[in-house]
Amino acid sequence: MAQAVTAGGELSLREQALTGDEAAFEALIGPLVEPALRLAHSMLGDRWEAEDATQEAIMRAWRKLGQLRPGMPVRPWFLAIVINQCRNTRRTRWFKTARIADVFQRPRPDQSDIERVDLARALARLPNQDRQALFLHFYLDLPVEEVALALGISPSAAKGRIYRACHRLRPDLLEEDK
Amino acid sequence: MDDMRRDVIVAFDAGQAELGDLRGVRERMLRGAYAGRTSRHENRLQVAAGIAAILIAALVIATFVYVRALTQPNPAGGLNVPDSTPVILFHDPANAAQIDGITWDGRSFGRVGDGGVNGGTSNPAGILYATGTDIRDRTGKVVGPLANTPPKTSRVAWADDEIHYCQVVPAPYKGVGPGPAMLQLVLPGGQAANVAQIGTYGSTGQNMPVPTVVACSVENDRAVVSEATVSPGFSVQDWVVQLSTGRILWTHTIKLPGSPGGVGTVATHDGQFVAESIFSPASATATIYGPEGSAITHLAGWVDAFTWDGSLAVTSPSSGYPVTVIRWRDGVVVWTGPAGLPFRSFKSEPGGTRMAIGLIDNHSSADPTVAPIIDLYVVSADGRLLWRKDNFNFA
To answer: For residue B163, which of A122, A96, A57 has the smallest C-alpha distance?
Structure first.
């Protein structure tokens, strides 16, 4: 779903963006807006909160562009900003989390597949950091190394987090995989 | 694993349905971001001037801080900082019922709200606090009742997600006398979810009648609960519990053979590391346990608290002072408190590295009816005293 932006092309775009070139910045960040919005929505559970957080993250990315080291992949760097912004939003708008929790935990009436509902519930019960790792790896298709960068943890920790989350969701499935 | 990937994507898809059609969202959000940002070109000179002004101001403030401690806080107005800025909540020196807040750099402070007489326990970032009866936000507004179960109340143990809290209440019990206790995870204004039946409620009726939650981590899906019993013999049992399943991850019991003495448990905010301390007038020793419950290290001294990242521990010797901050894995002392001032209270900066340590200033007072006077020391992870305030009582 997310477009992988290669490090080779980033260097010049990054440098151009640093000079204030909006087109270069758009070429860098533009493909990541939708994945960022989906990530924000998965963390906040509300479209408008997610849009606010993503937009704020874009502004922060613009301001912090100098911190993006040459050769560093843009995607996990930008998604890390989105994650931080969402965490701030959750802290600030704590009262809305009651609604988020409700959205996550309520069985959706149009889902008749019991197993699917169970999995959705199990996802909702995962610790936030485990759910984020799953979302980045499975839904946004980030490799483990980029998941690690986005979450600010080591690749082995990211791998462990993904495995732990899978095990919690479907312990029997993983047993079969062995 | 492919099945798992497919199923997880389908499950996430269901949640993402609300987003609907995202055509045009990219352009709209980029335009919105451009409109909201400050142009780098247009404001380069202003930015340079601003940076210079900030540097000068920082120099003046730093000089001021090093010359003398900040004056007493006397918040006449409300706390005027963004809700996302972590603050330390404290009881107003002139009126303990009033809760005030101060930022971690010590520069902004102001009034938050009432309700501090029988409580005022704040969450890590100081966004919410619990009074004896309800939960309030940073403006002092009541946001929900305190979900305590009569007849006894347990201390609110705020979670690291800044929203939930853990508590221990009596579990359903038809017998007479002490009954089982229940660990709960509570969303203010929402339901209390039973996590696990742990320990005994009202087991002693004395100093520590209920199990105490020493860590509540939604982020790391675990809580640490400690229960002390005085008969037969003084002992403490600690449990590390998985919040989502109620599973006991590990448990440990300490028995103190004789008295006088004491046993205490503290944990990192995420429940990964647990320190059990044993104290007697002659010595104090502590053992730190890791995520799986195995002993990692033994320390001389009593562990009072951990920093947010868990790398540093605040410790006290058997005499009570001086309080030290140590890097507990290798024992390197990072900071040493003033002589004669024992430990009283602690806050770690959520997600940050600073620590706020409350030390008792009038410890030597012979009058036991005199309330303790607490001085606040805010220390960096590398052991620098950043600022301090006198007469500061944490909420």
So the answer is: A96
Chain A: residue nearest B13 by CA?
Answer: A139
What's the pLDDT at B73? Answer: 44
The CATH topology of domain A1-99 is Rna Polymerase Sigma Factor; Chain: A (1.10.1740)
**CA–CA separation, B220 and B344 (whole Å):** 27
Enumerate the β-bridge partners of residue B170: B181
Local structure of residue B318 (DSSP, 8 states): T
Q: Which two tokens stand for residue B321?
A: 């002072």
Which residue among B10, B20, B189 places its CB closest to the CB of A98? B189
What pLDDT does residue A38 have? 92
Q: What is the mean pLDDT of each run of 10 residues along chain B (395 residues)?
A: 78 78 78 60 46 58 42 59 88 86 92 80 91 85 74 73 89 75 88 90 53 92 87 80 95 75 87 90 88 95 94 91 95 94 92 92 64 88 93 78
| Chain B residues lying within 8 Å of A97, measured CB to CB | 163, 187
Which positions in chain B touch A20 (Cβ < 8 Å)?
A: 39-41
Q: Is B65 inside a domain boundary?
A: yes
A22-29 and B25-36 helices cross at what angle (nearest 10)?
Answer: 130
- For A70, other C-beta atoms within 10 Å of its C-beta total 10
Reported ipTM exceeds the 0.90 cut: no
Q: What is the predicted pLDDT for the residue at B56?
A: 57
- Return the number of other C-beta atoms located less than 10 Å from residue B23's C-beta: 9
pLDDT band at A91 (very low <50, low <70, confident <90, very high): low
Range of the domain at B55: 41-70
Which residue of B12, B37, B143 is in closest CB contact with A135? B12
**Residue contacts between A and B (CB atoms, under 8 Å):** 135
Q: What is the pLDDT of residue A115?
A: 56
> CB neighbours (10 Å) of residue B350?
17
Across the interface, of A33, A88, A90, the residue whose CB is closest to B25 is A33
Among B350, B322, B221, smallest CA distance to A124 is for B221
B340 within a domain of the structure (yes/no) = no
pLDDT at B290: 95
Fold topology of A107-178: Arc Repressor Mutant, subunit A (1.10.10)
- Tell whether A11 is within 8 A of chain B (Cβ): no
Interface of A with B in 22-61 (CB under 8 A): 22, 26, 29-30, 33-34, 37-38, 41-42, 45-47, 50-51, 54-55, 58-59
What residue ranges of chain A are covered by domains with CATH 1.10.1740.10?
1-99
